[in-house]
Please model this.
Amino acid sequence: MHPDDALLADLRRIAAVVDGPPASVLAAARAAYLARDLDGELAMLTGDSRIAGDGAYEPVRTDPAPAQGHWLLSFEGGGVQVHMEVDEQCGRLRIIGQFAGASGDDYHLESAGTRRRIDVDSLGRFIVDDVAHGPIRLRCHAADGAPVTTVWVTI
Model:
């Protein structure tokens, strides 16, 4: 160890406290960390039954009633399709859905600061109870093993 190493360490510590990184550098570092999974595919929202004129969902027997508290969402990308119904009961949400084109047993629902494992049956069907209102996204793997993540959607 060189005698100046201790002095240089002290100077680094002082510089970090007095003149830390600019806010733009911290924001860029956070963005880089959040984008660490760019090798994965992004599944885009292709249908939302609550968007008027979407055309992806047409009522079969009756007009959809917003008071019913449920709606349909579909995502597609990376060879994976996800179809799900969001149902509200007593202020909490229940998601019933199905993955098509996904494989493995690594399925997750991500929401504000949480990540929950999803149990998916052999047909790709799943139910997630007690979901809080707010932004969510789903993660899985395509048949070729590539990670697929849906875009964030607020439920």
